Amino acid sequence: MFDNQTQIKKGRSFLFAALAMLASATAGATVVANIPTGTSWQQAIDAGNIVPSQNDAPLTQAAMAFYLTQGVPLQVMAATLLGDVDGVSDPDGNTVDNTLVMGWELPENDNLAIAWWDYRFDPTGNGTVNMGSGSSMIHFSVYPPVGVWDLSLELIDVNGKSRGWFRYGPANLWDTFWISPNGREQDPFDFYWNESLFDITQVLAVRFNESGMRSAPFFPSVGEGIGWNAWNSLQIKVPEPATLALLGLSLAALGATARRRREPAKG
């Protein structure tokens, strides 16, 4: 028979071991997208992982909630994608190679012209990724030149539901951003929207929207179309499946330890 003191010491040892397991459980991650380090932009386009917008395609609910705040007519345009473009330079003289450049036309009627590209985890458009852990992360670097009205990122689930982060009037410089898919408002983004019943455990695609108007010209022009901007990198990380299982075991161990410490000693 163990007395209370012995039981507490054993409980503490078990607790420390469980905490160590918990710490290690949060460290491992699977990189599900890594451009241009893991694969080039053009390879991702050719494989069907990167897909451009088409004329008059429907906006998600998250995008509608954002763009309607601008109080102008909206028009979705087809995007033209150029992979692995070198020498994209901002006004500060920061020149970047191996970029993805997106171009789109601006209507004569001066509607707000919206274009995008989707990163699909599965080129067939069916496979999804579980981003339900708080340790999931999206990292990207982008250059929005003069003329771009917004900078945004959306998640789209298997049922077409959406969650998005939007920023008005981004600076005319190369910049790097981190988005936690499970976070709400995140700096420097001004607007957040989460559609009812959006399923973070079945994310089909990550979408990058941009927009512009003919009355706000783009300088300089790069690629095809009048509107344009460029991305330098995209990396998406989610916890490894084995890591999630280990996390569950760690939490179970913590719960068992706590229960034993509450039980009176027998004997």
Automatic annotation (TrEMBL):
Residues 1-29 form the signal peptide. The keyword Signal applies. Residues 238-261 form the Ice-binding protein C-terminal domain. Pfam families: PEP-CTERM (PF07589). Keywords: Signal. The keyword Nucleotide-binding does not apply. This is PEP-CTERM sorting domain-containing protein. The lineage of its organism: Bacteria, Pseudomonadati, Pseudomonadota, Betaproteobacteria, Candidatus Accumulibacter.
